[in-house]
Amino acid sequence: MTATFSSLLPMTFIGGGNMASCIIGGMVANDFDPRQILVGTPSQSTRDRLSAATGATTMADNHQAAARADIVVLAVKPKMMRQVVMDLASALTHRPIIISVAAGIPVAALKQWLGSDMPVIRAMPNTPALVGMGMSVMSPAPGCPPESLALAERVLGSVGEVRTAPEAQQDAVTAVSGSGPAYVFYVAEAMIDAGVMLGLPRALAHDLTVQTLLGAATMMRDTGEHPTVLRENVTSPGGATDAAVHVLDDAAVKAALANAMRACRDRSVELGRS
Description:
Blueprint: E1 11-14, H1 18-29, E2 37-40, H2 44-54, E3 57-59, H3 62-66, E4 71-74, H4 78-88, E5 97-100, H5 107-114, E6 120-124, E7 134-140, H6 146-157, E8 160-164, H7 170-178, H8 180-197, H9 202-223, H10 227-234, H11 240-250, H12 253-273
Parallel strand pairs: 1-2, 1-4, 2-3, 4-5, 5-6, 7-8
Antiparallel strand pairs: 6-7
Helix pairs in contact: 4-5, 7-12, 8-9
């Protein structure tokens, strides 16, 4: 997945929160020249943190940051997006590629707020981008030039896997992969705490949990087997794992997870409507 970005011109991130930090950190780790990355954010502490961690150039003035870039990544909170984009529009007369990574914000709204016909791509990455294991799904606006989409794919592909999907699926994407790491961390918390309760030192419970989750995910990816098959391979009838799975079934864990993801999808829809 290594990529070379020497041919790319400067890109700007508007917003320096968790998602922007993960993408920038992953890009720098994958040989993107940090001198080509600008970050516009009003927070001095955020600017200091990003500069120290990644070497990116940071500034308080979004207009100044955006005016120097050929790719502008909008990475502010959904509730702030309308105002930020409308304020920024006058600095984008050079028509850079716009990539929005905010949940719920449709491309039609972005184009309306921008007040100009420029390449707009809605994307949903996730935080494992920080370690080069991200998952991003892109949805280009109608009429977005193929070369703009290809360039956005190079950027997001530097920090993980990339797929393209119709925008109508983006709220479901948010529920599966955008917020998905939180579900995994939630399970990891529970497994570590349970291991301690069962008598393990916390450090050992942590290491066992991390390697188990990593190994299981790698098996799913590398074997191509359905997770049901892999689970059944571990679950001998009447055995210890079988006893554990029965408890999970009795607690309706699958239904709870489905309900959680539905709530996530619905909230993403609400964010876009508001």
